[in-house]
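Quick one, C-alpha cells below. Sequence please?
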C-alpha cells in the first residue's frame, strides 16, 4: 500500500491543495484513496462537532469513504500551533496517541494513502516530539510541498535537508505558487525552479500555478492536471 507523509515548507504552503490534487489524480486513474489529517487546529464548531476544512477536503477525496473522525482524530478550535491548541483544550498530544488513532484507517487496503502533517516538518506536538516524529515512527517516505514565494529557496533546501537528516526518504517535491508576483518575471521564476531542481535530491512531481477556479473539488481537479504521482 503506497503511503506517503506530506509536509510543507511552512504553514499555508498548500499541503491540502496538493494532497487533494494527488488523491484526485489517483481516483482519476482508478485507484482507491485515503487522505488523513491526524491533527488539525483551526476547526469550526458545528452540529457534528469540531470540523477542519483541510480534513474535510481530504475526506472528500477518500474513496471508499470513511467517517470524519477516522480522517482527523485530533481536532482543536484555535488556529494556532497544535501543541498549544491541545494545551489550551486541556489535552496533551503525543506521537503514540496519533499512531494508535491512525492504526484503524491505515489497516484499510487502499492504493494511495497520504498523511498530511501540520505546518512544516518541525512543528511541535509537545515539548519533546514534533510532527516529523510521526513520519519517522511510521517509516514513511515524504512528499515536500514548496510554497513558491520570496524566501522559498532557503525554506525548501532546509526542509529537504531536515527530512533526509531524520532518515526519511524524500519521494518527491511539489512547487505551489502562493504568491502571484513570484511568477511574473518568467526568467527569474524559471531560475528559481531550476535551483530547486538542482538542490532537492528528489523528483519534482509538479508545479501548480495559481488556479483560476474555486471550490475544493474544482481546485483538486485543477491541481491534478499539474501533478504526477510518486513512483
Amino acid at each position: 500500500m503506497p503511503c506517503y507523509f506530506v509536509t510543507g515548507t511552512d504553514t499555508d504552503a498548500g499541503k491540502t491543495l496538493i494532497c487533494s490534487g494527488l488523491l484526485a489524480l489517483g481516483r482519476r486513474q482508478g485507484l482507491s484513496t485515503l487522505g488523513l489529517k491526524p491533527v488539525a487546529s483551526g476547526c469550526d464548531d458545528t452540529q457534528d462537532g469540531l470540523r477542519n476544512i483541510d480534513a474535510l477536503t481530504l475526506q472528500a477525496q477518500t474513496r471508499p469513504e470513511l467517517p470524519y473522525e477516522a480522517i482527523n482524530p485530533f481536532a482543536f478550535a484555535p488556529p494556532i500551533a497544535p501543541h498549544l491548541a491541545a494545551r489550551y483544550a486541556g489535552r496533551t498530544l503525543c506521537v503514540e496517541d496519533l499512531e494508535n488513532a491512525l492504526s484503524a484507517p491505515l489497516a484499510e487496503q487502499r492504493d494511495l494513502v497520504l498523511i498530511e502533517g501540520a505546518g512544516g516538518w518541525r512543528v511541535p506536538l509537545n515539548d519533546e516530539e514534533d510532527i516529523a516524529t510521526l513520519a519517522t515512527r511510521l517509516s514513511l517516505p515524504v512528499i515536500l510541498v514548496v510554497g513558491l514565494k520570496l524566501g522559498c529557496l532557503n525554506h525548501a533546501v532546509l526542509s529537504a535537508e531536515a527530512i533526509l537528516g531524520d532518515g526519511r526518504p524524500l519521494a518527491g517535491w511539489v512547487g505551489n505558487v502562493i504568491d502571484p508576483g513570484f511568477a511574473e518575471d518568467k526568467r527569474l521564476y524559471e531560475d528559481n525552479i531550476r535551483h530547486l531542481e538542482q538542490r532537492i535530491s528528489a523528483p519534482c512531481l509538479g508545479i501548480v500555478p495559481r488556479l483560476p477556479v474555486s471550490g475544493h473539488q474544482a481546485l483538486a481537479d485543477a491541481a491534478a492536471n499539474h501533478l504526477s504521482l510518486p513512483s
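Residues 98 and 112 are 20 Å apart (CA to CA). DSSP finds nine helices and ten strands in the chain.
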